[in-house]
Amino acid sequence: MKQSMMFIPTLREIPADAEVKSHQLMLRAGFIRQNTSGVYSYLPLAHKVLKKIEQIVREEMNQAGASELLMPALQQAELWQESGRWYSYGPELMRLKDRHNRDFALGATHEEMITSLVRDEVKSYKRLPLALYQIQTKFRDEKRPRFGVLRGREFIMKDAYSFHSTNESLDEGYTKMFEAYQNVFSRCGLNFRAVIADSGAMGGTDTHEFMVLSEIGEDTIAYSDSSQYAANVEMAPVIAEYEKSNVAENELEKIVTPNQRTIEEISSFLNVSKETCVKSILFKVDEKFVLVLARGDHEINDIKVKNLFSASVVELATADETKEVLNCVPGYVGPINIPNEIEVVADQAVSVIINGVCGANEENHHYKGVNLDRDAKVSQYADLRFIQEGDVSPDGKGLIQFAKGIEVGHVFKLGTRYSEAMNATFLDENGRAQPMIMGCYGIGVSRTLAAIIEQHNDENGIVWPENIAPFTIHIIPVNVKNDSQRELAENLYHELNTKGYEVLLDDRQERVGVKFADSDLIGLPVRITVGKKADEGIVEVKLRKSGESFEVNLNDLTEKLTQILGL
Amino acid sequence: MKQSMMFIPTLREIPADAEVKSHQLMLRAGFIRQNTSGVYSYLPLAHKVLKKIEQIVREEMNQAGASELLMPALQQAELWQESGRWYSYGPELMRLKDRHNRDFALGATHEEMITSLVRDEVKSYKRLPLALYQIQTKFRDEKRPRFGVLRGREFIMKDAYSFHSTNESLDEGYTKMFEAYQNVFSRCGLNFRAVIADSGAMGGTDTHEFMVLSEIGEDTIAYSDSSQYAANVEMAPVIAEYEKSNVAENELEKIVTPNQRTIEEISSFLNVSKETCVKSILFKVDEKFVLVLARGDHEINDIKVKNLFSASVVELATADETKEVLNCVPGYVGPINIPNEIEVVADQAVSVIINGVCGANEENHHYKGVNLDRDAKVSQYADLRFIQEGDVSPDGKGLIQFAKGIEVGHVFKLGTRYSEAMNATFLDENGRAQPMIMGCYGIGVSRTLAAIIEQHNDENGIVWPENIAPFTIHIIPVNVKNDSQRELAENLYHELNTKGYEVLLDDRQERVGVKFADSDLIGLPVRITVGKKADEGIVEVKLRKSGESFEVNLNDLTEKLTQILGL
After folding, report:
1. Which of A22, B251, B371, B543 is the most exposed place for a label (fewest CB within 10 A)?
2. Shortest distance, CA B454 to any CA of chain A (angstroms)
3. Which tens digits make up the pLDDT trace of A261-294?
4. What protein family does this chain belong to (chains A, B) (predicted)?
5. Radius of gyration of chain A (CA)
6. How many beta-carbon contacts under 8 Å exist across A and B?
7. Of B407, B401, B397, the residue nearest B181 (C-alpha)
8. Do A137 and B40 lie within an 8 Å CB cutoff?
9. What percent of chain A has pLDDT over 70?
10. With a CB-CB cutoff of 8 Å, which residues 490-509 of chain A face chain B?
């Protein structure tokens, strides 16, 4: 493509309202323009990259046995009412009325639509499993759109859905999709982790998020420094084993600790390690109060508390509730001498504390010499804390480290959440109607575009990985008014195009400084500069990534490009 | 692709609510399903064809020098208010509010969006011309969605826009697009005409519609039987030349013609030819009354009347107005002895009528022996009638015939309609701000899919043209439980896939009759049946279009397929 005919409005300045690197670069390199908050036009360069990402997704989905279709964005409200999400989705779901005053949702996701479609056509186990996907514009009215296309209100998503007659078949389908996702993100040149995630309110079981490692990510990932293990930090189990030392037990002693509320304060006040302190937090687990204990240097993970009790809701007790139940202000709560109806559970690390310190359920007082087996009634020791950096990885391999991640994909075992609500059943081998077992699998295509840029840039602009770059070669004649430079550049352009390279020719009448700056911003892997030595048949080749540059005789150019780019 | 893994829900019965062939076949062959009125899911087979059409469109657009981008479907109301279309578009424009109660339109078309985008980035004539296009889902809340995806409320469109600094540049761009459109529809295997169309209220100049010839079309095309000429019937000029015979003029005579109002009645009553009768119709042209004359066998074309007077509105005068102005009921109106303030204009054919018949402006009375030069005051003779079948083609080549057409594309010289309303200006070579001159160019991608099927089917199903078919080869093992048949079919499937053919393998455990019926419905160009002679290495090849079938030895199959399909 000739640059004069393409719409690439580059900017010299960093736009004031763009906080993160990818957003800044997409604006500056002429990839996107905002139309309104969270709504963007993808200009030709961005569009070319989107198509490449889509093609990779398509190849991997087809390879995984899924078929592509296209469902409508306009979805009648009745479908969402059947699943119940019309009422639960909130203002993120964009809604409108047609000319007949009928309610519609703009597709934020398509579980209802696909369930309805498959329910109407598939009646027998013989037609299962079935996997379908689409690549489509989705609409979600985000409360706080930000970071450019990383969190927009209109975005491109690949959503896939699978239907199964058995859980084993779902497991197989899930594994195929999982592998396809790994391939997609690897081929996009991303440094990512498949992270065990919370199945949340969806009622599913297995679920993984695909996270691109980035300091601007909104999620924290706990990963092993020596294996593939990675999990959302909320989900990582702690497998540490604790051993009790054989120090002699002291007597329990109540002490005055004026204004020493936090673990920090009390450990410092008493000059003991945090590991010796017992953190005691009162939770409301569904309708029941539970006192949860953890070691002073650990944080309680309420998802683990919730799972321990198979509860629906776990909340911290309020100060008023604490006062009412324990007759104590928060900060001095402890497990000793509390009402029988309050269950006490503790993280495993607490079980080995000898002569510990805990609140005395009395303002400005603590106990020391606490030995829980003797002094309190702990109903259960379990894994109840957040994993920490330095903990042993849950797979036993290496130590845990933390990283931030941008979620670009999600695979999810839905189970029968939708098929039961919407009565999507099949007849099994015995002729009995059963709800279909479903999986759903999403990739944020436009978000992936931004994530790639977030990971591939330097101070001068974007640095495209080869197989996702909008073009691979940028030809720059230094002076287009010089006939031999212009002609050589044009000839090279046609020759390399014919060879199958994707070439952008900067045929604009601009100063060469402007062209180089734009070229660095746009970030194509290889730049060929046609300058004064054009007459001698010599051009300069520069690699965007390494910055390495060298002169090449035209006779050797093809061979050189083959070495660099293949083909 | 293996058929068992693809979602192709075929139907035996013709769905009751599908009126036209393409709609019936798309439902029966498992290409689409309706979600709600005018809103469809494109199932995998349809999706594959859509992608092929899109690829053809893309190649031809790129060839024409346009760059692809993607603009949002969500468009803030302010843009549409700037152009004025927020108020004029009516209920076809779908509207919604976001969570902050701001108004949005769902993109029905993108003139406003692209004008705003280019206005903000292009400031100089040096950056023009510029041509941009997108392939995108559009939304129009049609009053009467019908014929399946031929007239839907959510549909796929390619819309292109070009920006120019001069009218000559617009002409060039328009010509390139015109040629690209001819290529697109030819490559889609369509029998179509590029038809001169009415530029209507858009204020543009040149405009062509691309019409697929079909009896279900809503527009009438006047085309030459011996040239490429074609026009919307409303737009075709009449170039007939009329010669006056040298019959002697009779005297004007008022005669009584009780209840003879129509041309049919009066010509029969007087036993004269319709060609001798003068049809006289009173029009209201803007605020002025004009009497328009045509030969009895011709129809007056009000667009031509409108153009003759450069008027904004042309309407038939009401009976009340006719009474008021001519003191006469319609049916007896004529050009003789009418008030001076009423201008009389006539179609050219009227100029040669000798001894004609016309209304006498008196109920139940006509004149005969009418010779207008002598008896009336005609201010102008001009081309004011509709062209008819049998007329000479306006390009002088051949005779006109009529056909019905489905509009699949439209190229349009917009001029400065949007750039002036939205202040999209550039600085010309003299540094003066000028409005950009625009063109717009649309293709109904999903409608094209239906139009192809409308033209390519027989009583058994769809008959795909090769380069647009979802797959080119359908392999059918007669009995998948027979090991040698199944294995041969599978081997063939892999071999032909590897060779680059697109192959659908019917691996379902169905009766062969069901498979053949489905295969005919789906309509792939070549069917390979693997039956009893599998062991002998013999298969049957059947061509969908001709119905021709023959046995082929496996050793000769590749050569045979190359003959049929190329590759």
Report:
1. B251
2. 21
3. 999 999 999 999 999 999 999 999 998 999 999 9
4. Belongs to the class-II aminoacyl-tRNA synthetase family. ProS type 1 subfamily.
5. 30
6. 147
7. B407
8. no
9. 99
10. 509
User: Measured between CB atoms, does A396 come within 8 Å of chain B?
Assistant: no
Cβ proximity of B207 and B181 under 8 Å: no
Question: Which pLDDT score, from 0 to 100, does residue B566 have?
Answer: 80
Helices (H), A126-217: 167-187
| B99 in contact with chain A, both atoms CB, cutoff 8 A | yes
| CB spacing of B69 vs A41 below 8 angstroms | yes
Q: Which residues of B touch A132 (CB under 8 A)?
A: 7, 44
Answer yes or no: is pLDDT of B145 > 90.
yes
The verdict on a CB contact (< 8 Å) between B75 and A106 is no
- B205 pLDDT more than 80: no
For residue B542, list its beta bridge partners.
B527, B549
CA–CA min distance B446, chain A (Å): 11
CATH number of B17-236+402-453: 3.30.930.10
Kindly state whether A9 is in contact with chain B, defined as any CB-CB distance less than 8 angstroms: yes
The whole-angstrom distance between A63's CA and the closest CA on chain B is 10
Domain with CATH 3.90.960.10 in chain B: 253-382
- Per CATH, the architecture of A471-565 is what? 3-Layer(aba) Sandwich (3.40)
Taking the C-alpha atoms of residue B109 and residue B363, their distance in angstroms, rounded to an integer, is 52
Given a cut of 80, is residue A203 above it in pLDDT?
A: no
pLDDT at B203 over 50: no
Q: For residue range B328-378, what is the model confidence (pLDDT) as tens digits?
A: 988 899 999 999 999 999 999 999 999 999 999 999 999 999 999 999 999
Q: What is the ipTM of this complex?
A: 0.89
pLDDT at B386 over 60: yes
**What end-to-end distance do the CA atoms of chain B give, in Å?**
19
Measure A170 CA to nearest chain B CA, in Å. 15
> Among 3.10.100.10, 3.40.50.2030, 3.40.50.2300, 3.90.960.10, what is the CATH number of B253-382?
3.90.960.10
Q: Does B137 touch chain A (CB under 8 A)?
A: yes
Nearest neighbour of A154 by CB, restricted to B35, B74, B122: B74
d(CA A396, nearest CA chain B) in Å: 39
Location of structure tokens 């093609």: A55
- State the span(s) of chain A assigned CATH 3.30.930.10: 19-237+402-453
| Residues A79-100: tens digit of each pLDDT | 999 999 999 898 999 999 999 9
Outline which parts of chain B fall under CATH 3.40.50.800. Answer: 471-565
B139 SS3 class: strand
Of all residues in chain B, what percent are helix, strand and coil, respectively (each to 5)? 30, 30, 35
Preceding amide of A9 cis, omega within 30 = no
**Contact by Cβ (8 Å): A90, B90:** no
Chain B touched by A153 (CB under 8 Å): yes
At A281, which amino acid appears?
I
Name chain B contacts of A91, Cβ cutoff 8 Å: 99
Minimum CA–CA partner of A115 in chain B = B35
For domain A19-237+402-453, the CATH architecture is 2-Layer Sandwich (3.30)
Residues A305-326 have a mean pLDDT of 93
